[in-house]
Amino acid sequence: MGDASSTLEGKVALVTGGAVGIGASVARRLHEAGAAVAVVDVQAAPASDPEGILHVRADITDDAEIDSALQTTLDRFGGLDILVNNAGIIRFTPLQSLQRIEWDAVISTNLTAPAFCAKAALPHLVARGGGSIINISSIQAVLTGPEFAAYAASKTGLLGLTRSLALELGPLGIRVNAVLPGYVRTDLFMADADRLGDGDPQVFIERLESGIALGRIGEPDDIAGVVAFLASDQARYVTGAALAVDAGVTVRL
Asked: Residue 6: which pLDDT band, with cuts at 50, 70 and 90?
């Protein structure tokens, strides 16, 4: 993919769910590559973020808050070239215990919000002559397990959204792609590893790593590098793609 440094000079990026985990790494990587970056999250900005990353508190399941966050970004940076739909939530619930409020929360955050963030961003991307939308899906879109119904459905739906928007927005110069992270060391993953490892997350991690081709779980920056590539002109002929960044997990029989 080459060196992403300085390939995003003059670009403006908005990253949803960018206060922690993969989103925070994505925001920092885009900033390092030269982009002005706005992070939109319901959580407060981490103290460790470099200067030059704008943090906006907003709930992306609320259209008015999406519009307000976008306007804050435009007022600060003057335009928009890159949208990274990263924000997401997960619930582990057996079907017999699943409540509509849980289902709606997951679908609203993981699938509906990316669609309406893209809608809100569209005229501003067009005004800059095109751009890139990157949806953070999951390997749960293609491989899943029990008690993931809402999450798996939302991440699979995000692939359909990606493909449809790639066809619709391509003539406007906008590329739309999806990234499917595998097992990545985030707070969310570690909480699940603790649950599945009966209080010892390393037990679960070692079991996972024994079946991963590259022999390790991922780090957030492994995903961020791929996002930076897709956001850049190095990926100018890539649209409608669903790129698994999972160390080979989804190709194992």
From this structure: low
Smallest CA-to-CA distance from 174 within 226, 243, 117, 122 is with: 122
Going from the C-alpha of 174 to that of each of 13, 36, 184, 186, 238, the distances in angstroms are: 14, 19, 28, 30, 10
For each of the domains in the chain, give its residue range(s) and CATH number, in order of start. 12-182+219-248 (3.40.50.720), 185-217 (no CATH)
- Residue recorded with tokens 């995003």: 8
**Strand positions, DSSP E, 28-167:** 36-41, 53-57, 82-85, 131-136
Alpha-carbon torsion (20, 221, 161, 236), positive or negative: positive
Is 183 tagged catalytic? no
pLDDT of residue 249: 95
pLDDT at 48 over 70: no
- Which residue in the list 77, 151, 189, 229 is annotated as catalytic? 151
Spell 63-99 as b/e; 16+ CB within 10 A means b. eebbeebbebbbeebeebbbbbbbbbbbeebeeeeee
User: For the chain, what percent of residues have pLDDT higher than 70?
Assistant: 96
pLDDT in the model for residue 195: 83
DSSP state string for 126-161: HHTT-EEEEEE--GGGTS--TT-HHHHHHHHHHHHH
- Output phi, psi for 237, to 5 deg: -110, 20
| Section 56-78 average pLDDT | 97
